[in-house]
From TrEMBL:
GO molecular function, one term: beta-glucosidase activity
Record-linked PROSITE patterns: GLYCOSYL_HYDROL_F1_1, GLYCOSYL_HYDROL_F1_2
Protein name: 6-phospho-beta-glucosidase
The keyword Hydrolase belongs to this UniProt entry's keyword annotation: yes
GO terms for cellular component: cytosol
Pfam families: Glyco_hydro_1 (PF00232)
PANTHER family recorded: 6-PHOSPHO-BETA-GLUCOSIDASE ASCB-RELATED, GLYCOSYL HYDROLASE
Keywords on record: Glycosidase, Hydrolase
Record-annotated active site: E360 (nucleophile)
Entry coiled-coil feature ranges: none
GO terms, biological process: carbohydrate catabolic process
Family assignment from sequence similarity: Belongs to the glycosyl hydrolase 1 family.
Amino acid sequence: MTHFPDNFLWGGAIAANQVEGAFDRDGKGLSTSDMLPNGILSPHQSREERTPGIKDLAIDFYNRYPEDIALFKEMGFNCLRLSIAWSRIFPNGDDEAPNEAGLAYYHKIFDELACHDITPFVTLSHYEMPYALTERYNGWGDRHLIGFFERYARTVFEAYKDKVKLWLTFNEINMSLHAPFTGVGLPEGASEQQIYQAIHHQLVASARAVRLCHDIVPNARIGNMLLGAITYPYNCNPDDVIAAMNENNKWLFFGDVQTRGKYPGYMLRYFRDQGIDIAMEDGDLDELAQASVDFISFSYYASGCASADPKQKEVGNIVDSVPNPYLEKSEWGWLIDPKGLRILLNFLYDRYQKPLFIVENGLGARDDVLHTGEINDDYRIAYLNDHLVQAREAILDGVDLMGFTSWGPIDLVSNSTAQMSKRYGFIYVDRHDDGSGTLERSRKKSFEWYKKVIASNGAALQDK
């Protein structure tokens, strides 16, 4: 097989808080992302102390979406993963009625995508929530947020039921363990007890969203989304194998609950060992059991290693890991491991036996613009080519793979560091870390490469 399945979805993935800008336009409320001007690694500020950040304008997708969607279509996209900013629909999160201007904006986006025959693939909550919910309710630490999210989900399902048939609940839901303010609206110093309690509320809310989607949009499919942080043992020492197992269980827990509908035994043991007691209400476990997602989606950027020896660990970008001597690193310290994608695809499919979707994969790198205006990003082409070849190998292994949406098809503001210089796109955006630039769009060398890959349904990929 040299090509992908005939119904394969090809495209790219973006997030509202990293592309839209217009952070205070048309009734939008402040989000938790708006309170992190330097990325998720910086401490959040109070509303009164908030300073302007590069995400306030981002790449101005809010106004330039027709131009950008036309470029996506030129590459051959038949799918675009994007998110709705919750605070555009409910500015404070607990509002009784939605913001009609926010609803109207996404109607325009979905109509524009329809004009280009691009399937919208929508994430309900992508690393942001209304900031007022953290001020008034301590974020997802308060059970009230289940009802607020349910109201939001019901509102957008009913509004867009004729236009959107592919949905996700929470982006990289397991990242709350590493960035609790970004994930669940808790302060960075929150305890494990507080974080896992907030995660429980979020998991119940996710289950309600799945049920609502099935009821309101019966011909739609809704999935979950994990950060696919596959971890290898550092060596064949059984202690290292157990260390890797424990690291993988930290993120598989989310997939297990959202797919199998119950808390796994290894997590119950962890709670006992750590003295964590999750407060649940009657019916919570029934809700989880009755709302299995239709498919598993995940991001994949890098693998990691685990060792029982604490001296082996080094600080990474958000997540600490043990260095792998067999792999090279990206400019931002991420291990480049294409074969890890094949391993992860087989691992997840064997575990869940549900369709999979790669919703994020890409290389963040600095791009040099030549005096001719060309951007020869061969390193990005090599990275994506090698990962897609391994995805094809996984399909040959028997994995049911729905699609691939690269992160991000157009340069956008990095979520972790709030930089423009960490570029992922096939489309260059003339904006820089200091906020300067014209916002003009231009095609990189990878633009034509990805166009050929899509046109050939993967046959243009180069085996090595």
